[in-house]
Design goal:
This protein has helices at 29-43, 64-67, 71-95, 117-125, 143-153, 187-192, 200-208, 223-228; strands at 7-12, 48-53, 100-104, 113-114, 129-133, 158-163, 168-169, 181-182, 184-186, 213-217, 235-238. By secondary structure, the protein is α/β, with parallel strands linked by helices. The chain has a single domain (7-238), classed as 3-Layer(aba) Sandwich (Carbamate kinase), CATH 3.40.1160. The strands form two sheets. A nine-stranded mixed sheet has the order 4-3-5-2-1-6-10-11-9, sandwiched between helices. A two-stranded antiparallel sheet has the order 7-8. Strand 1, helix 1 and strand 2 form a beta-alpha-beta unit. The longest helix has 25 residues, at 71-95. The mean pLDDT is 94.
Length: 239
């Protein structure tokens, strides 16, 4: 079984790390172990893997008027949350026997390398999983944008957006039982139908750089392997 993609960027939401637990326990060890096992399956096949994780399970940027926390300050707090998640995933991967490097867009030498594009690409070439923490290092940008930007910088073949749903639907399938799933869709169709795949900045970056996105259910064990080997899992967004 040969992989369809040689180098991928896996975008995970922070909320997905919670599993079924409450917000008082933001990281579920069982989910970390499952993600690590799934990632190991594809690195063993020679697929080069980079990971970007959100921070919403620990801190989600709030409305400034409600929280009293300035937007830029709140965004930096969110970036630190993504580094905590990155450390958790790194720990899970290393427990599974996968070599990793955590790179941060904000300097914190004791726990992560600074983000250096050429060094990241060299790690990938050596078979290490590279986890990108702290978003882009700038406020006002989401981790979706960080994922798109890093994917383009490292010349990834595809962005795999792991979510709790099994693809892109015409409406929210959790609210609308009549929602239909798309197997494939173009960037322009997503715009026309106003489908929220990623935030607009991230989505536009992918479209302008002809970088396909696959949205799939990461919480189902084995799905990542299926996506990487070309099985029809999730929804493919491309030109």
């Amino acid at each position: 079984m040969l992989p369809k993609y040689k180098r991928i960027l896996l975008k995970l939401s922070g909320e997905s790390l919670m599993g079924s637990k409450t917000s008082f326990d933001p990281i579920d060890p069982a989910i970390i172990a499952q993600y690590a096992a799934d990632i190991k399956q594809i690195t063993d096949m020679g697929v080069q893997v980079a990971v970007v994780i959100g921070g919403g399970n620990i801190y989600r940027g709030m409305n400034e008027a409600e929280s009293g926390i300035e937007r830029a300050q709140g965004d930096y707090m969110g970036m630190l949350a993504t580094v905590i998640n990155g450390m958790a995933v790194q720990s899970g991967l290393e427990k599974a026997g996968v070599y990793t490097r955590l790179q941060s867009a904000i300097k914190m030498e004791q726990i992560a390398e600074p983000y250096i594009r050429r060094r990241a690409m060299r790690h990938l070439e050596k078979g290490r999983v590279v986890i990108f923490g702290a978003g882009t290092g700038n406020p006002y940008f989401t981790t979706d944008t960080a994922g798109s930007l890093r994917a383009i910088e490292i010349k990834a073949d595809v962005i795999l957006k792991g979510t709790r749903v099994d693809g892109i639907y015409s409406a929210d399938p959790e609210k609308d039982p009549t929602a239909t799933k798309y197997d494939t869709i173009t960037f322009n169709e997503c715009f026309q139908k106003n489908l929220k795949v990623m935030d607009m900045t991230a989505f536009t970056l992918c479209m302008e750089n002809d970088l396909p996105i696959i949205v799939f259910d990461m919480n189902k064990p084995g799905n990542l392997l299926k996506v990487v080997t070309g099985d029809k899992v999730g929804t493919l967004v491309s030109k």
